[in-house]
Design brief:
GO terms for molecular function: ATP binding; ATP hydrolysis activity; transmembrane transporter activity. With 217 residues, this protein is of the alpha/beta class. It has two domains: 1-81 and 157-169 and 192-217, Rossmann fold, CATH 3.40.50; 88-156. The protein is 34% helix and 23% strand. The protein has helices at 42-50, 75-79, 97-107, 112-125, 141-153, 171-186, 198-203, and strands spanning 2-9, 19-26, 31-35, 57-62, 65-66, 82-85, 159-163, 190-194, 208-212, 215-216. Bound molecules: adenosine-5'-diphosphate (2 copies). The site of one adenosine-5'-diphosphate (ADP) has 11 residues, from helix 1.
Length: 217
């Protein structure tokens, strides 16, 4: 599903490249961890896949298309295939849970009533059906992360990316969140999780990409 071929990224004005000569392959239906110290380049790698940053060298293949040279017009088509989960949830505080989850569908043009029905069904999957009418700040951190995940997958993306999704959660909650990623992976989504959580990686072993100062080990 994803091929990196000799991919490098240097930010303007920084001495050292953030990523150098990366080669790897994420097969369709795989679930992979991305680890490495702070500053190793994990977020940069995810941003290259999302088209939020551009590589300076190499090719990134997404389902056979080179996405390193997409135009502004083509980018939304790429992003529609991807769901993104954040460390800090990024929910809209003045909207209900169900509206937060429905929003990507409404923005994509779906009728709001249909979108809310789909969002309710997804909240059921993540175990928050009975909190649908609540506002995000009335939920715990673990619950807010579940809402972020529901929102990330509501448009049924082929690829689910997560950047330190359990960075703000304790061990038990983190385990539940990783179980949820496994569930979406079993449903057919390809999953890539950037994480520092070595304990969880040991509890739920998967293939692992390890970054060291911009290089893949
Ligand atoms: P990680 O997610 O593993 O912590 P990042 O991808 O955020 O690593 O950062 C990799 C390197 O790129 C770091 O040295 C960081 O300081 C640098 N970097 C990240 N974003 C930017 C940016 N927008 N401008 C300049 N340098 C950046
Ligand atoms: P999978 O995710 O099942 O492993 P791939 O991503 O390997 O599938 O392949 C998807 C498509 O991308 C195929 O048509 C393959 O030929 C094409 N492709 C993959 N890597 C390259 C590459 N380096 N150059 C050109 N085409 C490629």
């Amino acid at each position: 599903m994803i091929h990196f071929q000799n991919v490098s990224k240097a930010y303007l004005g920084s001495k050292q490249p953030a990523l150098q000569g990366l080669n790897f392959h994420l097969p369709v239906g795989s679930m992979t961890y991305l680890t490495g110290h702070s500053g190793a380049g994990k977020s940069t790698l995810l941003k290259l896949i999302m088209g939020m940053e551009r590589a300076n060298g190499g090719q990134i293949w997404f389902n056979g298309h080179d996405i390193t040279r997409l135009s502004a017009y083509e980018l939304p088509f790429l992003r529609r295939q991807i769901g993104m989960v954040h460390q800090d949830y990024r929910l809209l505080p003045d909207r209900s849970i169900v509206d937060n989850v429905a929003l990507p569908l409404i923005i994509a043009g779906m009728h709001p009533k249909t979108a809310r029905e789909r969002a309710l069904a997804m909240l059921d999957v993540v175990g928050l059906y009975n909190r649908a009418a609540h506002q995000p700040l009335h939920l715990s951190g673990g619950e807010q992360q579940r809402v972020d995940i529901a929102r990330a997958v509501i448009h049924k993306p082929q690829l689910l990316l997560a950047d330190e999704p359990t960075g703000n959660l304790d061990n038990a909650l983190s385990f539940d969140i990783f179980s949820l990623f496994e569930e979406f992976n079993r449903m057919g989504m390809t999953v890539l999780i950037a994480t520092h959580n070595i304990g969880l990686i040991q509890q739920k072993p998967k293939p692992c990409l390890v970054l060291e100062q911009g290089y893949l080990r």
